[in-house]
Amino acid sequence: MNHLRDNTSFVLCGDIAFSESKNKIVTYRKGYLVCVDGICKGAFNELPEEYRSLPLYDYGTRLIIPGMTDLHVHAPQYTFRGIGMDCELLDWLKNYAFQEEFKYYDMQYASKAYSFFTYDLKRCFSTRAVIFATLHTEATIELMTQLEKTGLITYVGKVNMDRNSDNLQEADASASLKATRQWLESIDGKFKNTKPILTPRFIPSCSNDLMRGIGQLSKETGLRIQSHLSENPSEVEWVKELVPESTCYANAYEIFDTMGTPDCPTIMAHCVYSDEREMKILKNHGAYIAHCADSNMNLISGIAPIKKFLDAGINIGLGTDVAAGSSMNMLKTILITHQASKMYYRLVDNNVKPLTFEEIFYLATAGGGRYFGKVGTFKPGYDFDAVIMDDSIMHTMRDISVRERIERMCYNDADDIINEKFVKGKKVYSSIKA
Amino acid sequence: MNHLRDNTSFVLCGDIAFSESKNKIVTYRKGYLVCVDGICKGAFNELPEEYRSLPLYDYGTRLIIPGMTDLHVHAPQYTFRGIGMDCELLDWLKNYAFQEEFKYYDMQYASKAYSFFTYDLKRCFSTRAVIFATLHTEATIELMTQLEKTGLITYVGKVNMDRNSDNLQEADASASLKATRQWLESIDGKFKNTKPILTPRFIPSCSNDLMRGIGQLSKETGLRIQSHLSENPSEVEWVKELVPESTCYANAYEIFDTMGTPDCPTIMAHCVYSDEREMKILKNHGAYIAHCADSNMNLISGIAPIKKFLDAGINIGLGTDVAAGSSMNMLKTILITHQASKMYYRLVDNNVKPLTFEEIFYLATAGGGRYFGKVGTFKPGYDFDAVIMDDSIMHTMRDISVRERIERMCYNDADDIINEKFVKGKKVYSSIKA
Fold first, then answer.
1. Mutation target among B294, B395, B403, B418 for the A interface, most CBs of A within 10 A
2. CB-count burial class (<10 Å; 0-12, 13-18, 19+) for B106
3. Contact: A303, B400; criterion CB under 8 Å
4. Is ipTM > 0.90 here?
5. What whole-number distance in Å separates Cα of residue A92 and Cα of residue A83?
6. CB pairs under 8 A between A and B
7. Which residues from A are below 8 Å from B398, CB to CB?
8. What is the reported pTM?
9. Which residues of A touch B407 (CB under 8 A)?
10. A320: CATH
11. Domain limits at A332?
12. Given A303, A338, A409, which is nearest B347 (Cβ)?
C-alpha cells in the first residue's frame, strides 16, 4: 500500500461541504473525505473498500470545508487594521498605509510585526494567500521565511514603487528593478511553499520605465504579477492623466506588458470601476480579479459588479485586503461580499442580480483557489486543503442541514470555531487538545 | 458615607471612552469612572477627594465603554440567524420568520429557544434592548421572566397580527387586543427591569381595527409602541394599497394614532424609504428610528439615509434586527452601519456625507440609550451601564490611543473580548476568573 508511507494519506469523517460548481454546494452528513499523498480522492457517503486501510480520523459532527484563498492582503498593514476608517483611498494611503510601511526598513520592527501577521494567518480560514509586502527587500525575505514555517502556501511580493509616494519610494526605475533582482536571487531555491510574485504597487506609484521593466522581468523569469486596478474614482482619474495614451486603466497595464497571460495570470485587486472594455482586457489576458468588498466599502470606493464579471467568465477570487479590509477572516469577507452585491443590485443596477451564497462560497474557495492550480474544492485530484470547524456553540432548535450550517457559519463569522487546518494533506494547525 | 451602603457605589479604573456629543468621543487613559447608587458621577483623570473612600476596582489597560442599546431585535428568530440570506423581506418573512415564530405556541420549545437568546444577550455589548417576541402570550411572559433574571433592562412586546400572515395570526382585532390586555394583566407588577411595549408587527399584518385598538390602548395605558416602517419597496407599495387614504406609510400609522408623542415615543425600525414627508412626521411625534443596516443589506432592502435623519434632529438608535441581521453583536452593527452609510454617499446621493465613526458610536450608545432615559454615556447623572473589554489580543506596533482602540475594536467586532458588564451599577456578567 504505497499511500500509507507518510502521514499525508488518511480519511477524515465529518460533516463535509464544498463547491461542485459555482452554483452548487454539495454536502455529506457523516461523510468520508479521502486524502492520499496530499491529494483529495473525493468525498463519499460510504468509504470505498480501497481506502479502508488508511488511518481514519473521526470529527463527529464537525464541519469540514476546503481551505480558503485570500487573493489580496497587505501583510505590513496588519497591525493597524481597523484604524483610520473615515478616509478615502488616496488619503488613507498617505496618512496610514505609507507611513506604516515606511517603518519596515527596520528589521527588528519588521520581524516582530510580521510575526503577528503570520501567527494570525495560520489560524484563519485561509490555506493560501497572495500577499503584498513592502518595498524593503530584507523585510520581505523575513516575511517569506516566517510564512514558510506556517505550512501555508503563498505568493509574496516585494513592492515596487518609484514615484508619488513621499518617502516610501525607491530612487528610480532602475534602482527598483535592481532591488527586485537582488531579492529574487537571495530567495532562489530557498522556499518550498512561499513563492515570489512581481508587485508594482499601482500605476500612480510606478513610473513608465518601472512598469515596462516589471513587464520585461515577468517575461524573462516567468514570474507572475499582482497589482491594483480601478479601485477609486480619484485614482482612476489620476491614471488617465499619468498615462494619457491609455484607453482605460487596464489598457495602461497592457501598454506596459503587465496584464499577464492565461498561463502566467496577473492578479488585479478591486476592479470596482471596470467597464465592458476593461472586462474584455481582463478576460483576454486570463487575469484574476481579487474582489475586496470589505475594503471597497471601508475606503468609500464603491462596489464592483462581480456578478457581471462572473457571468462573463472572468477569473475571480476574494481578498480581505487588510488593512483597508479590517480582518483576515474570510467568513466576514463572504458576508460583506454578499451584502455588497445585494446593494449593487438594489442601488446601482437592478439588471445585475445579487450573487448567491453558493457563488460567493465558491469564489472564497475554488474561485481563488484556481490561481494556485487544483485547489479549493474536494473533487478528486485537488490538493487536500481543509479546515475543520466546531460550530456547536451556535445553538439551534432545528435539525439544520450542513448547507444551512455553512451559511450560518459565514454569517456569524466567528473565527474561534476553527479546530484544524490541512494544507496539501499536512496538518498545519490544531487547537484541539490531545 | 451614605453611598457606601450597597455594592452599586464604586470606582472603576481603566482606559475609558464615551460620547460627549454625537461628534466627540472623549477618552481617559488610566482614568477613573465613578458610580454612586447606580448613577454615573463622571470620568476623571484624577479621582476627586470625595470619592476616595469608595471601593476601587483597577482594570489596568482594559477598555471601559458605555453599555450599548439594541433598539430592535426579534428574540424568537435568534436560533435561525444566518440562514435564508438570499431572500427579500416578504419572502423571508413567509419562508423563515413566520414559520419559526409559529412554533412558539409550544411552551417547551419557547422556553428552550428563549434560553439561547437570553444567554447570548447577556454576554453581548448591549445592556438595553427593545425586543419583539411572538404573538403568543404565554411564551412572551416566559421570555420576560428569563430576561428579568439577566439584570439587563429591556422592553418586550407580545406581537399583534391579525391578517396576511398565514397560520401565524390572531382571529381578529378584538381577539388580538383581548390577548394583549390579558398579557398586560398577567405581568402587572411582576418585573422590575422588563417592561411591556405594544407591538403591532407592521401595517400589512394588522387590520385597521387592530391598529386603531393599539393606538387607543397606548393612550389608555401610557404604554409605548414599536413597529416597522418603510423597510422594503414591495412592502411600501403594499401599505399604499392597504391604507389608500394615507399620504405615506408613516401617515398610515398616524391615522391609527400609533406614531406616539415625545413623552411616549414610538420606535420605528428601518425607515429605509422615508422621504422628507415621513421625516417630518417622525420628528413631530418624537419617534425613534431603529436603524438596522445589517438587516437592510441582508434582505436587499436598501440603505437608510441616516446622516440626513441625524442632521434633521430625529431620534435614532441602532438595531441588530436579528434574524434579518445575523448577530446581536453591536460592534458588527457599527461596522456595517459605517459601510452602509459610505455606500449611500457613494452610490445614491453624494450630498449626504457618510456618518463618521464618532456619530455611529454615539448612535450605538447614547443615541439608542436616550430611549431609556439618561443612558448610554458616562456624563454625571446617567445610569451606570458599562462594558469592560480586554483588547490586548489585538497586537499592534504603535502606542495607539484609546480612541483608536475603540475604532479597531468595532472594526474587528469580536465579542469574546467582553470581560464584564454593569447595568445601573450592578454587575450582571463577568468572564473574569476570580
1. B395
2. middle
3. no
4. yes
5. 10
6. 131
7. 79-80
8. 0.97
9. 82-83, 85
10. 3.20.20.140
11. 68-372
12. A303
Residues of A with Cβ-Cβ distance to B396 under 8 angstroms: 79-80
CA-based nearest residue in chain A for residue B116: A395
Mark yes or no for CB contact B411/A116 under 8 Å. Answer: no
Q: Do A397 and B109 touch (CB under 8 A)?
A: yes
The answer to whether the CB atoms of B408 and A79 lie below 8 A apart is no
My answer on whether A149 and A218 are in the same domain is yes
**Min Cα separation A100/chain B (Å):** 10
Q: H/E/C letters for each residue in chain A?
A: CHHHCCCCCEEEEEEEEEEEECCEEEEEEEEEEEEECCEEEEEECCCCHHHCCCCEEEEEEEEEEECEEEEEEEHHHHHHCCCCCCCCHHHHHHHHHHHHHHHHHCHHHHHHHHHHHHHHHHCCCEEEEEEECCCCHHHHHHHHHHHHHHCCEEEEECEECCCCCCCCCCCCHHHHHHHHHHHHHHHCCCCCCEEECEEECCHHHCCHHHHHHHHHHHHHHCCCEEEEECCCHHHHHHHHHHCCCCCCHHHHHHHCCCCEECCEECEEEECCCCCHHHHHHHHHCCCEEEECHHHHHHCCCCCCCHHHHHHCCCEEEECCCECCECCCCHHHHHHHHHHHHHHHHHHHCCCCCCCCHHHHHHHHHHHHHHHHCCCCCCCCCCECCEEEECCCCCCCCCCCCHHHHHHHHHHHCCHHHEEEEEECCEEEEECCCC
Question: In chain A, which residues have their Cβ closer than 8 Å to the Cβ of B394?
Answer: 82
C-alpha–C-alpha distance, residues A155 and A193, integer Å: 8
Same domain, B299 and B311: yes
Query: Are residue B204 and residue B301 in the same domain, yes or no?
Result: yes
Q: Which residues of B touch A338 (CB under 8 A)?
A: 85, 298
| CB-CB under 8 Å, B357 with A408 | no
B322 and B335 co-located in one domain: yes
Instruction: Kindly state whether residues B177 and B204 are assigned to the same domain.
Output: yes
Of the candidates B322, B340, B372, which is a domain's last residue? B372
Kindly determine whether residue A301 and residue B357, on different chains, have CB atoms separated by under 8 Å. Answer: no
Choose the mutation target among A99, A335, A410, A412 for the interface with B, i.e. most B CBs under 10 Å: A335
Nearest Cα of chain A lies from the Cα of B82 at a distance, in angstroms, of: 4
Does residue B426 sit in the same domain as residue B325?
Answer: no
Note whether B354 contacts A103, CB cutoff 8 Å: no
The tens-digit pLDDT sequence of chain A (434 residues) is 344 445 899 999 999 999 999 999 999 999 999 999 999 999 999 999 999 999 999 999 999 999 999 999 999 999 999 999 999 999 999 999 999 999 999 999 999 999 999 999 999 999 999 999 999 999 999 999 999 999 999 999 999 999 998 889 999 999 999 999 999 999 999 999 999 999 999 999 999 999 999 999 999 999 999 999 999 999 999 999 999 999 999 999 999 999 999 999 999 999 999 999 999 999 999 999 999 999 999 999 999 999 999 999 999 999 999 999 999 999 999 999 999 999 999 999 999 999 999 999 999 999 999 999 999 999 999 999 999 999 999 999 989 999 999 999 999 988 889 999 999 999 999 998 76
Residues B171, B156, single domain; the answer is yes
Q: Please tell me which residue of chain B has the smallest CA distance to A358.
A: B86
Q: Which residue of A has its CA nearest to B403?
A: A83
**One domain, residues A283 and A408:** no
Domain count, chain A: 2
* Total residue count of chain B as it appears in this document: 434
Chain A positions touching B303 (Cβ under 8 A) are 343, 347
Q: What is the CATH number of the domain that holds A418?
A: 2.30.40.10
Last residue of a domain, one of B343, B372, B401: B372
User: Between B80, B109, B412, which is nearest A396 by CB?
Assistant: B80
